[in-house]
Amino acid sequence: MARKTSRRATRRSARKAPRRTAQTLRRTRAAAELKSPAARSAADHAAAAGALPQWTAAEIEEAFRRFKAARPEPKGELEHINPFTLLVAVVLSAQATDAGVNKATPALFAVADTPEKMAALGEQRVQQLIKTIGLYRTKAKNLVGLSKKIVEEHGGQVPRTRETLEALPGVGRKTANVVLNVAFGQATIAVDTHIFRVGNRTGMATGKTPLEVETKLDRVIPAEYIRHAHHWLILHGRYVCVARRPLCEKCLIADLCKWPAKTVVHHRSAER
């Protein structure tokens, strides 16, 4: 009798095996489709349209607690000597990489680390020093123009308000926010392409424009984290939540993220 039961159980298992295999294959195919470039793009569009669930205050608090624990004092990657050279570096970084800017600025800063020296250098000489950077002619013109304006209207000192910074040639809201945050310690968030992507993709702060994302981040990030939030989010977008294939397996906030195409969903709160 025991032998018959064993045979029956074996036959039943054999019948179920193909079914289980088919289910496993379907799950594998579904997972592969979810991780495909097309699926990731569709998920990004859904996120940008505000279709993701909203983060709770507790989730946002936990995300920035982890960022702080991993990197207590985050730093920007643009090399600079003083507020003026920081302003110059940020202007040069538009549509360029920080690494590319850092290769060009040592020679420039060696001869022009103040607005007076930059203005005296003139456009042609500045062009020669920054010609490895994209849009170097326009940027040279803006650097000389903003330097003259700083000398003539601000006594040679970089302004400390967004309005006065944005009145300088080549300086927009993002550049102004970087200078205010890094040079003067103000709690501003400069939404570049990385922060824009992270805010939308994760669902932390969705918006169709950088200003919308900035406004939402300002509203939801706890006060104790706002000062360094700019750098935490930029570095996260630059090295982990990258555009083409985000490294979800290395993400500190993967379990909190609302992106439907993420590749891992493990829980990290036990790591406190």
Features:
mainly alpha; Endonuclease Iii, domain 2; 2 domains; elongated; disordered N terminus
Quaternary state, please? Answer: single chain
The biggest beta sheet reads:
none
Total strands: the figure is 0
Number of helices: 13
Strand content: under 5%
Structural class: mainly alpha
How many distinct domains? 2
- Could you say which overall geometry the principal axes of the C-alpha atoms support? elongated
Question: Can you tell me about this structure?
Answer:
The chain has helices spanning 2-35, 37-48, 57-70, 83-92, 98-111, 115-121, 123-130, 136-154, 162-166, 173-182, 193-202, 210-220, 223-239. With 272 residues, the protein is mostly helical. It folds into two domains: 40-74 and 189-271, Orthogonal Bundle (Endonuclease Iii, domain 2), CATH 1.10.1670.10; 83-182, Orthogonal Bundle (Endonuclease III, domain 1), CATH 1.10.340. The chain is elongated. Mean pLDDT is 86; it is low at 1-5, 16-34 and 267-272.
Secondary structure layout plus pairing:
Elements: H1 2-35, H2 37-48, H3 57-70, H4 83-92, H5 98-111, H6 115-121, H7 123-130, H8 136-154, H9 162-166, H10 173-182, H11 193-202, H12 210-220, H13 223-239
In short:
This protein is mainly alpha-helical. Helices cover 63% and strands 0% of the residues.
